[in-house]
Design a protein that fits this description.
The protein has 259 residues and is an alpha/beta fold. It has one domain: Alpha-Beta Barrel (TIM Barrel). The chain is built from twelve helices and eight strands. α4 runs parallel beside α12. The chain is globular and about 50 Å long. Belongs to the TrpC family.
C-alpha cells in the first residue's frame, strides 16, 4: 500500500467519525454558507504572475517544513505579496493542517481560498463551504469518473469552484467534464514522490482551453514558471518554497516581483 492509499483509508474513517459528531445542519448554519465565493479561475486568467501560494506545515515527503508561523502571518503575507489565491492544507495526520487553519485564513484575507484536502465525500465539500473556502481540490488518482462528476456537481451547486488534479494521461482522459474550472497537473508522482516538470509539459496539449491550466509541485524558480508559460499554464501552486523560509510572505513577495 503506497502513501496515497494509506491517506485515503484514513480519510474515509475520519469522515465517518466527523459525520457522527457534527451534523450537516450545523455546517449549513455557518455564517460563510451564504457568502459569495471569489473566483480563482478569473484571478488566474487576469494575472501576470499566476501564483497560488500554499500554507503547509509538513508533508509525508518532508517531515517538517515550518511550524514557526501563525496562519494569519502567512496568509496576510501572501495576500500582500500579490498572490492570486491561497491553498490551505486541512489534513491533520499527514500535513499538520486543520479546518481551523481555513477559518483563520478566511478571517484574515479577501482572496480565493482553496481547501487542499483528500476529498472522498460530499460532507467534506460542505465543510469547505462552512469554513470559508472558495474552491476545492479533487484528486483524479483516488476518484472514479462517477465520483468526480458527482462531487464536482455538488461543489458547483454550492458556488464553489473545482480544481481537478491529474498526474497522467489516463487520469486526465477519465476526468474531463464541464463541472471543472481548473485542471492542475501535479509534477510530483504521489506514489513515488519523484518530481519533474515534464509531467506538466507532456499533458499541456491534452487539456482543453475551456479549463485554466495549473502546474503544481516542484516549482521553485522563476525559470520553471517561464518554462511552463508557453505550454499555456496560467496558475502555479507553490508551497514549500515559501514556507521553508523565515518569512513566507516576504519570500512570496520577492518571487512575485521578480516575475
Amino acid at each position: 500500500m503506497n502513501i496515497l492509499d494509506k491517506i485515503i483509508v484514513d480519510k474515509k474513517r475520519e469522515v465517518i467519525l466527523k459525520k457522527s459528531i457534527i451534523p450537516v445542519s450545523q455546517l449549513e448554519a455557518s455564517v460563510f454558507f451564504e457568502k459569495k465565493t471569489i473566483s480563482l479561475s478569473d484571478n488566474l486568467r487576469n494575472s501576470t504572475s499566476g501564483i497560488i501560494a500554499e500554507h503547509k506545515r509538513r508533508s509525508p515527503s518532508k517531515a517538517e517544513i515550518n511550524y514557526n508561523f501563525t496562519v494569519e502571518e502567512v496568509t496576510k503575507g501572501y495576500e500582500t505579496a500579490g498572490a492570486c489565491g491561497i491553498s490551505v492544507l486541512t489534513d491533520g495526520k499527514y500535513f499538520g493542517g486543520s479546518l481551523d487553519d481555513l477559518l483563520l485564513a478566511r478571517a484574515t484575507v479577501n482572496i480565493p481560498l482553496l481547501r487542499k484536502e483528500f476529498i472522498v465525500d460530499e460532507y467534506q465539500i460542505l465543510e469547505a463551504k462552512a469554513h470559508g473556502a472558495d474552491l476545492i481540490l479533487l484528486i483524479a488518482a483516488v476518484l472514479t469518473r462517477e465520483e468526480i462528476k458527482s462531487l464536482s456537481e455538488f461543489s458547483k451547486n454550492l458556488g464553489l469552484e473545482v480544481l481537478l488534479e491529474v498526474h497522467n494521461q489516463e487520469e486526465l482522459e477519465k476526468s474531463i467534464m464541464p463541472t471543472l474550472d481548473m485542471i492542475g497537473v501535479n509534477n510530483r508522482n504521489l506514489k513515488t514522490f519523484e518530481v519533474s516538470l515534464d509531467f506538466s509539459k507532456q499533458l499541456a496539449a491534452q487539456i482543453p482551453d475551456d479549463f485554466v491550466k495549473v502546474s503544481e509541485s516542484g516549482i521553485s524558480s522563476i525559470e520553471a514558471i517561464n518554462e511552463l508559460k508557453p505550454f499555456g499554464y496560467k496558475g502555479f501552486l507553490i508551497g514549500e518554497n515559501f514556507m521553508k523560509t523565515d518569512n513566507a510572505g516576504k519570500a512570496a513577495a520577492e518571487f512575485i516581483s521578480k516575475l
